[in-house]
Amino acid sequence: MREIGSVQYDSSTYNDENTLLNFKLMNAPTLNQAFTHLWGHDSDKFPLLTMTEGQMGQINKRPLNGADTQYKWKIIGREKLTSPIKRLVTTAVNGLVGSNGGAIIVEMQDNWFPYQYGAVAPDGRSLVRVQTEGVPTGRGTYQYTFVSQTGVGIDVANFAAGKFWALQAPTIAASKSDGTRDNKSSFNEATNQFGFHRFSQNIAGNISNKVLDIEFDIKDENGTIHKYNKWIPYQMKKWELQRKQLLEEDLWRSRYNRDINGNVTLKDPQSNEPIPRGAGVFEQLEAAGNDFSYSNFTRSLLDMIHDHVNSNRIGDSKGEKVLYCGKGFAREFSKSLERDSKFNNYFQSLGDKVIGNGTDGYLSYGAYFNRYKLLDGTIFTVKVVNMFDEGSVAELQKKNGDTIDGLPYDSYTAVCLDHSLVANDDFGDSRNIQMVYEQGREFKMGIYKGMAELPAEWGASQGNILSDTKDVASYEVITSQGINILNATTSFIMRRA
Amino acid sequence: MITLKKTITIKYKLAGSIFESINKLAYNTQVRSLGTTKTIVNKLLSNPTLLDEVLPIIIGNNNKNSEWEHEKLDWVSSIQIPISSSGLILDLNSIFDVGNPDRKERIAKYIKDYKVDKDITEENLAQHILKNKEIDPTDYHMYFRYTNARDFLYWLVAINSAQVANKPEDADKSPNIRFFLYDEKIARTRLLANADAQSKAVNKLIALRAKDNGEDILKNIAILQNIIPFEDVMDMSKEDIYLELFSYANNHSSDFLEIAENKELELQATIKKYIELNVLSVNIDNAIVDSSNTEIIVGKTMDGAILYFKNPINKGEVTKFESKYKSLKK
Q: Looking at residue A267, what DSSP letter applies?
């Protein structure tokens, strides 16, 4: 015999509602059958993963099958025409060198200027002729003799260490000239790698068959809403969303982890196997020198960053560029254009848009900028993605008090990603941004079955072959993923600091 | 009137990450941009005179129009300093003139406030201001006229930025540091100082080696500074130990000199050896304790342990440690 409940007593004098509540014969009424989501519903926190979906996806998926997780792609850089000064050897007279056709002896940091070619000074005006080939100095530099093309002295400021000079056309006499040499440039290779992730969900006993007195609405892939009153479907949805969020953030924040000798130092302590990590979007843009910090966003700042990234680029693709950002950046963007409009005295046209007619004689206030067109035709459009407002870093910043005007610093981040098609790829046209994974292991799922009942949502037959004698089971997932930007120099990131 | 000559270079950190390093040739990044932070912008904007006096020279605006406040905010917020691979040289030449009508009152007030000798030379007064820790660099414009106003503001951004190390040797102190300031004069002085220390360290090493108990001293230094793992040092030849120490003395000259001139070197090395063979151990509070009875604290620090060993009262315990060490060493 076993006692499954105990008899309760109540010493109150009257039989009233309290007695019933005390005996748990009545419950407090439920105000609302629906859940109240204190922090909102699960939302669009997966900009990169979402972009791989659908036939018109803006990110290609690229399966890789190599010896390890590293991969390479070929790159052709910008044509090099400049060479930096190391030091001026000739002594200047009255702040000038090379007056009256005198020899100017300089040390350059490389051997890029061939004999007979011209070179233009940093002042953009003074021209010299390269009279000798660069002679190695033993300090890794090259010594040249220049002569002013006009015989006029050149300001010594042009020879400050680190100042760049640029190559100009070779010049020769009408007869008896000799040949010269050319500079060679080839393509390079860039390297990155992908990593692996593992997620498990564990259950025990008969949890998969337990029915709750709550009904969950769960949307399937086609958008159809299904009603469930079992625990596992709800739990699976939460688990999948968290898994997706963590994988999405990893695509942005992952840092390359091979050392300079190519070894992975991060190892699994149980198996001693290396754990590879690839460079995510942030690290790739940083390596390309396209990460910018700002304090207050201004229109001039965006102009300047756009110029930094795109000026001097041949065949720049114009058109619409999307700035993926948090709410903070969107607010700063609008504010900066408002400030600029006021500065340019567009009070009336701005006022007409911002102050509108409401209903019943009331006025409405509020209209915001989310697009900006530049002189070269490029249009920047702001798109708020929740990852910067609700991702894990935004969450920790809110908790640590790292906020500006109520929003976490991450919310003021904006990323401009170039999704354009890259032609002549070995695999046909492909997108500039690609998701890479190990062939056959993009997503691998398996069930470890013990005595516990398997939920139908795991998609496995019950069977009676066990892998474990315990009353447990687990749902195991391995994924491999990495993000690769073929040309990282056309994308950029702005972070508030 | 005197001219103070100064240039300083902002350089970017090479190979900020391994990924950047391995892809250096592929990306061939030529220019990196140093932006502002909220703290820097607020600091520049909140100075009552800085931007009103310096900015008009840069943007050619006399600061008398109604849009001036917007201009200031816009200019400072939009600062992105392009740093090329060879660095950006900032021209910080300035003119100090006690008779300058715009500055003479401020300079007179400075002399009064800081009780400076009225007969001080212009040169010494300028240095007095520059070395005065109470004068923030954002106030230097009150006393000096910078010949390149834009570079002066860029320098203020750089020295106030958490992304910029003030010295090259601090550049690796944080992954957030992307740039560093390089002053050729300071670098040269430091190189000379390092060369001095290096030759002193090597001379000291040679002198120690020549001593009768030279081998033991070198072993003790190697053990104490963790130059060679304890388990290896006992089996190494004296030549190999010398070579390891020679390289250490060259690369960490001041550290080497400090330990080589330590009067308690032998005793410290003994304690370290006892710890290595577990005669003594270090407990959770970093105190040195008797391994056979961790309640007995030999010293809360190395200095404390030295006093314990030197105290005649503890002679018995010390002998016990010694014999235990000898038995383990066999």
A: B
Token representation of residue A483 = 């993000």
pLDDT band at B330 (very low <50, low <70, confident <90, very high): low
Residue ending a domain, among B257, B289, B309, is B257
**Model confidence pLDDT, tens digit, residues B37-73:** 989 999 999 999 999 999 999 988 777 787 888 889 9
Which residue in the set B16, B84, B89 is minimally distant from A286, CB to CB? B16
Mutate which: B40, B59, B78, B91, vs A, most A CBs within 10 A: B78
Strand segments (E) across B48-136: 81-84, 88-91, 94-96
Contact B78 A164 (CB under 8 A): no
Final residue of a structural domain among B126, B151, B182: B182
User: In the predicted model, what is the mean pLDDT of chain B?
Assistant: 89
pLDDT value at A42 more than 70: no
Alpha-carbon span A181 to A116, nearest angstrom: 9
B93 and B5 in contact (C-beta within 8 Å)?
Answer: yes
Instruction: Find the CB nearest B38 among A162, A288, A295.
Output: A295
Interchain contact, A289 vs B31, CB within 8 Å: yes
Q: Is residue B272 situated within a structural domain?
A: yes
Please check the confidence at residue A1 and state whether its pLDDT lies above 50. Answer: no
- The total number of structural domains in chain B stands at 3
The boundaries of the domain holding residue B223 are 196-257
What is the residue-averaged pLDDT of chain A? 83
Q: Flag if A497 and B26 touch (Cβ within 8 Å).
A: no
pTM, two decimals, is 0.74
- Alpha-carbon Rg for chain B in angstroms: 29
